[in-house]
Design a protein that fits this description.
Layout lengths: L1 H9 L8 H4 L6 H8 L1 E6 L18 E2 L11 E4 L2 E5 L8 E9 L2 E8 L8 E7 L10 E9 L2 E7 L7 H14 L4 H9 L1 E5 L6 E9 L2 E6 L2 E7 L8 E8 L2 E11 L2
Length: 258
Amino acid sequence: MKTALLLALFFASPSFLPADALSVSSSDDAEWLKKRGTLLFHDAFEREETGNGLKDLGNGWESATADRVPQKKQADLDEGILKVSSAPEAKHAAHIHHDAGFEDGGVRIRFKLPGLSDQEDLTVGFVDRECKGVHAGHLCYAIIRGRPGSITLTDRKTGVMDLTNRSRAQEAMAKTGKIPPDLAELYKTKEASFSWSADHEWHELVLVTEGNEMRATLDGKRLGSHRSEGFAHPVKRWLGMLMGTTAWIDDVEIWKVK
């Protein structure tokens, strides 16, 4: 009975399981990164930005949406904290990225949803702009939502950002307002969601890919994992962070295991 219930929940839309139903304890991906990996990059943001331009955050970061609203400060380095507030007039979530470069590995990031705006969220994941057939190189992400408290692991490469899938979905939406049923079923298999007790405090996320698996650990406790072929993409060239409204970042590490 319990197995049937979990399967029913998984294939519902959106895919969602309570953390206690699928959490995997006793696995420490922070230690996995340290013992088996190489630290590629670290930033504690102990500096000031030099302006609102593409590279003005310094230390190799690029603000991909800066040119949309050059007069508007979307990213502010303040006492060692990267404070991001997405500008509605940009018509795109604030998007900040940095070179990465691994197949297996991941990121450690301290974040806070400060409660300064409604519907705060933070998307953390990996991009390969050289990957053909995928819109803007979007590979895979963890989407952290504050209301309701959920974290979704999603394979965008073989799901919604695959150019063939995306084109079919857009054409169908324009004609009927609905995604084709077969695509809707495919998309369900490309993500899994887990609950977390969202608040306005600091938290540490460890997000890793190993083969076709993506795993998320929050504050030292395994939150959940998901398997999909897009997670095994051979080169995660960029770490990407998107903020729909407001989010703060205090510390970032990028690790390569393979």
